[in-house]
Amino acid sequence: MNNNLAIKIINLFKSYENVHAVNGIDLEIKKGEFYGLLGPNGAGKSTTINSITSLVKPSKGSIEIFGKNIEDNFRFARSKVGIAQQEVSQDWFFPVEQLLYFQAGFYGVLRKDAKERIEYLLNKLGLSKHRSKKMRELSGGMKRRLQIAKALVHDPDIIILDEPTAGVDVELRHDLWTYLQELHSEGKTILLTTHYIDEAELLCERVGIIDKGKLIVEDSVNNLKKMVKNSSIEIQLKDELENKPQFLNDYEHHIEDKKINIIIDKPNMELPSIILKFSEKAIKIEDIHIPQTSLEDVFLDLTGRKIND
Ligand code: ADP
């Protein structure tokens, strides 16, 4: 048994009639790690994480939390994990604060501890002045904050968030990112799903890319980016070429008006020699750009599709 693991998913399958939502996933998340499951809609992200909290019953496979099987140790697993689901639950008629007390009761948090914890979360998530509002009176962003507060009410060691910033405005996105980073620095294990590339790149120490119910690759963001070949250099010329210089034929390239795109393995290393070749031919360059590789390129490379198509 690996004592460093917070979550271990072994050979997970989940089918709904004809849909293979999760198709054989193995996943290990270390204690204190910030892990992201990145993939398009319908890839199987929610099904995977909902299996960890027994909201979904797997067709096959097993899951361990801190080395303990969740089926045999249901209470233990529940106490260790907090999940903010994507769908807002239907507690429309209760005030925010009351909902948090219900949640604390559900998790067996003592009333006196609950008060302190709930005040902290209302404050931390900017919900204090909305504490008396009913769920149905909250904006989308506020509902999302409440979901997260509910997930954190019993101060779990493992925090699972399903698309925490889907559909929320930029300001809230940044607030939530900051708070998640704070929780991570406190030593919490965080697993989030997202289809936002920037979110995965910014927050996650490791990213698993999931597609069609399978984990197709996982690594640190930097290592994933290194997998992508076909980087390029974009060169904007001052004037359109009269004659194409011979040296360009040594590279895979595309020319469009005054723009030349050179496809090359190590653009940063090759750049000086390419500039020199242009200058030897007295071709004036106006601008040079090396597009940064993103996890979108990794996904595109592996699947031939874009994540958010
Ligand atoms: P993601 O979270 O990556 O968007 P999901 O795990 O929600 O993906 O869904 C994976 C696949 O399983 C999708 O095709 C979805 O339509 C299907 N699915 C998810 N939940 C159910 C359900 N309760 N009943 C039937 N099909 C489902």
Distance between the termini: 40 Å
- Assign the CATH class of the largest domain: Alpha Beta
Outline the low-pLDDT stretches. none
Percentage of residues in helical conformation: 25-40%
CATH superfamily descriptor of the largest domain: P-loop containing nucleotide triphosphate hydrolases
Count of DSSP helices? 10
Q: What would you report as the Rg, rounded to the nearest angstrom?
A: 24 Å
Any idea of the CATH topology of the largest domain? Answer: Rossmann fold
Q: What is the overall pLDDT average?
A: 92
Name the CATH architecture of the largest domain.
3-Layer(aba) Sandwich
Tell me the β content: 25-35%
Helix-strand makeup class: alpha/beta
Count of distinct strands:
14
Ions, cofactors and other ligands present here are:
adenosine-5'-diphosphate
Topology as H/E string?
Answer: EEEHEEHEHHHEHEHEEHEEEHEH
In short:
With 309 residues, the protein is of the alpha/beta class. Helices cover 34% and strands 28% of the residues.
